[in-house]
Amino acid sequence: MRFAFIVHPLTRRDYLRSCSGDAALPRMLRNVVFRYLAVYLLPSRTYPYFKSLFSPQRVFTYRRLVSTTGAVASGDVISAPNNAEELVADQGRAVQMLRRECQRLAETGVDLVGLGGVNGVIGSYGHAVAEGSPVPVTTGASYTAFAAIETLTYLAERLGQRLAGLSVSLVGLPGRNARVLAELLVRYGVDLCVVADLHAPYVQRLLAPLRPLAPIRVIDPCRLYEALGPGEILMAASSTGNKIDARLLPRGAMVIDVSLPRDVIHTRPRRRDILVIDGEVVRVPPGSTPERDFFSCGDGHVLACLAESCILAMEGRRESFTVGRHIEVTRVEKIGALARRHGFGVDGLYAFGRPVRDARIEVVRRLQDGRAPVFSLPAPRRPSASVR
Fold first, then answer.
1. What is the DSSP string of 74-98?
2. pTM
3. Which of 9, 87, 179, 365 has the fewest CB atoms nearer than 10 Å to its CB?
């Protein structure tokens, strides 16, 4: 079974990286010229006009994905021309662009289309795209949630703790990913603190079914940075990213960033006294390494949202598995079981595509416990800007 996965650039450099695909020569040359002009030569106000001339383009291919069960699938990763902010600003045009691309992919023999990043958020979390697509569409959010829980479990084991009773703060409500993560965390016995508006009606409405299962604390977003206590892990799972300023995090903070685009806003140089872990990096079955590493996940690893399309293709399931505002926990558990069956899963902790070593975790643990780090660290700067 053949699948396709549509992503979008996260940085300006991604515009040129996405031109390294193997599309037809005239189309590739046109995209290279226009994207080079947009990235390096033209003022920002001209970006929308020139990007309207771009077309989604293939950036790399899985020619043969082999499951541990022997099932085989193949697929292409397609890069849309617009970044996250532009997709959100003009969702009507973005949905039409994605529908046209789904139509084109269906004509080339694709059986399933995955929507990555903000592509899976706009249009009622992929519902509008699925309605106008001739092939099934999935956003990958179910396996993203499962991979985030696996990553949290792996981190707890590295810290010598169990998932049950672990203190976790969750950012992202009322987003879809944060809602299903809140339900999963409560079911696994985590001591949960939700970062959301205390007086917003939707918060009480979303948390009402979970309160009989376990007590849930709620803190206002403006108190996030001062409320993070020793040993507490922060899970960031918003729908559009850019919610947490790394400069304001306390020393020893541990963050699992599940969002794409990322929730944690980094500055240069990156702080060494905090730990930010990629929350949706999973291994692929042996022998299924992509030709190019467009996502910077490291060899033999992909994002969980992409992995969901791979898993469904291996299963031969032509269905819109994860579409819409609500994700059922049964769906998360189902895709997690299928992933393990086909050889996908979390096999380590990664930060920006690089493995996180035990020594790095120990440094942050010492800072959390109030002990001296193994190297001198400058005090983090606290800018006067308001907390986002």
1. EEEEEE-SS-HHHHHHTHHHHHHHH
2. 0.85
3. 365
Is residue 380 within 8 Å of residue 305, measured between CB atoms?
no
Tell me the Cα Rg of the chain: 21
Q: How far is CA 48 from CA 34, 35, 36, 94, 125, in A?
A: 12, 12, 14, 12, 23
**Cα separation, 277 vs 258, whole angstroms:** 9
- Of 168-177, 234-243, 367-376, minimum mean pLDDT range: 367-376
Round to whole Å and give the CA distance between 328 and 212: 19
The 10s digit of each residue's pLDDT in 33-90 is: 555 555 555 555 555 545 555 678 787 888 888 999 999 999 998 988 888 888 888 8
Question: Which stretch of DSSP H or E encloses residue 141?
Answer: helix 141-158
Sequence-distant (6+) residues with CB within 8 A of 59 are 7, 17, 18, 20, 21, 77, 78, 79, 292, 294
Return phi, psi of residue 276, to 5°. Answer: -115, 115
In the chain the domains, ranked by start, together with CATH numbers, are: 2-140+305-325 (no CATH), 143-281+349-368 (3.40.50.720)
Residue 303 contacts residue 293 (beta carbons within 8 Å): no
313: left (phi over 0), alpha (psi -120 to 50) or beta: alpha
Nearest to 140 by CA among 312, 353, 8: 312
Return d(Cα 145, Cα 295) in angstroms, integer. 19
